[in-house]
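Slide 14.
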Amino acid sequence: MLDRTTTRFSHVKPGDTGFRSDGLRDFFEYRDLGIAEATAGKVIAQLTRAKNAPEKGTGWHRHEAEFHIVIMLKGWAKFMYEDKETLVAAGDCVHQRPGIVHYLFDYSPDMEYLEIVSPADFKTIDMPAPCEVPAPHKWKTRAKARKK
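Slide 15: predicted structure.
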């Protein structure tokens, strides 16, 4: 049965929280969806979108998490999952099994994805490279226009 003492109802609308640049990666922006607070830290749900053109990517890393999915809402991103290149396009859903070593190395200017992870305070650990990573493509302009 659901423990109603540590979780609560939450309804976050687009105007309730804005995108912030102070997240894990300085080339992305993040929008908190209120789930970490509503679940007392059991789960985080956040929107992540491209802020700057891909230059160095995320580097090889893994997460200490029990559950992690990425649902691509707009655009696309290219990941290396261990030694396999994976294109994740709008509409795709990826389950990143616990501990999988990966590298997000390329993405479109309009890339935006929903990330759901448990626990909310999951850790990111840098890892050695298991293989070479392809170079990212160049954006046509340094700044991108975004609908407000």
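Speaker note: The longest helix spans residues 35-38.
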